[in-house]
Amino acid sequence: MIVRISAENQYRLDDEVLARVNELDNAAVAAVDAGDRDAFHHNFNELLALVRSKGTPLHDDDLSVSDVILPPDDLSFEEAGQEFTGEGLIPD
């Protein structure tokens, strides 16, 4: 799977990481639904850190299409309410 972090880079993620990525995405959705700002930021920041640490950055000249586009790390909780809904950014 190829994941883009907006305003940053694209990363190729191996299949064994995807379950944890999906868990964090679902936890971020649940936190938004519950109105829990701290839990959202914790899960969202952990999601971004996981993609950055376990993903392989693609070269700038790689034109692969992103499977998922994550918002930038400065996403506000209010903005998250528009992004993290339903199945989240990463459908089950």
From TrEMBL:
Pfam families: PspAA (PF22743)
InterPro entries hit by this protein: PspA-assoc_dom
Domain PspA-associated: 1-92
Name this polypeptide is given: Unannotated protein
The organism of origin for this protein: freshwater metagenome
